[in-house]
Amino acid sequence: MSCRIYLVRHGETIWNAELRFQGHSDTALSPRGLEQARALARRLRGENFSAFYASDLQRALNTARILAEPHGLPVVPLKALREINFGAWEGLTVAEIKNRYPRELQQWWHDPLHTRVPGGKPWRRW
C-alpha cells in the first residue's frame, strides 16, 4: 500500500498580487486565484483522494473546496495549517516594512527562525 500527499498553495489573493504580507489576515482569493484553483482542479480530476485538509483561512479553504468538489469530498479546516502570524507586518509591502521596521526586516531575512516580527509569533515554538 502506498500513500501520496499533495501539498498545494492557495490561489492568488489581491494581497499576493500587491506583494503584501498576509499571515493570519483572512484575505480572499482574487479572480485570478479562483481560476488558478479551477485549473488545478481540472488537472487533478483523475487522481484518487481520500481526504482534503486546509488552513481555516478563506484563501486556503476556498482553494481546497474547489479542488475537492470534483471528488465529492469535504474539506477539513485546520487552524494548525495557517501561515505564520506576521503581526504588524500584515497588509504591508516589503517596501513599507523596510521603511517602518528596517532592523527587524534585516534580521528576519537573515534568520527567520529566530526573529520575532513585531506583534507576531516566532516560527520556532520550542
Question: Which labels suit this protein?
Answer:
2 strands, 5 helices, Rossmann fold, two-stranded parallel sheet, 126 residues, single chain, 2 domains, mainly alpha
Please sum up the structure shown.
By secondary structure, the chain is mostly helical. It is 36% helix and 6% strand.
Topology:
Layout: H1 14-17, H2 31-44, E1 52-55, H3 58-68, E2 75-78, H4 94-100, H5 102-110
Parallel strand pairs: 1-2
Binding site for substrate: 9-16, 59
Pfam families: His_Phos_1
GO biological process, one term: negative regulation of glycolytic process
What would you say this structure looks like, in words?
The longest helix is centred in the N-terminal third of the chain and has 14 residues, at 31-44. This protein has helices spanning 14-17, 31-44, 58-68, 94-100, 102-110; strands spanning 52-55, 75-78. It is elongated and about 50 Å long. It has a two-stranded parallel ribbon with strand order 1-2. It contains five helices and two strands. It has two domains: 1-83, Rossmann fold, CATH 3.40.50.1240; 93-126, no CATH class. The mean pLDDT is 93.
